[in-house]
Task: structure prediction
Amino acid sequence: MRPLMLLPLAALAIACGGAGPRSATPELGPTLAIEQFLRAAAASNLSQMAEFWGTGAGSAARTGQPQDYRRRIQIMHAYLKGNTAKVLGVREDKGDRVVMVVELTRPGCRRQVPFTAIRRGQTEWLVSAVDLAAIGAPGARCTGDAPPPDPPV
Result:
């Protein structure tokens, strides 16, 4: 293939989303929005967390709403950092609003936590709520529901 013939193919790949970072989750929906939000929390990337959290008006990073969104992101980060996470599935689906159950695990503690994602426009999904009370205090051990110890190897 000639180099000039590759240029239209590269432009088509970029136009179709084949290159560059993506913002809040077009095609893959609420699961991907939650996973991206959790990856940002694990990386302590509060700016990126704000890209994946918001309302039907858009991400908090783009809209600047609610006014105290930076403080809210910091609080969610405090609860989520140090956890491993696994999206288990849908608890409730109302079309543009989906509640997913996420298993969060930290040493001595495993919790199933509801995360709410909302659709913005046709394809974008954002995390809109995390049930912090279901997580328990940051860094604290669970009471009464710690996972069984791993079997000896």
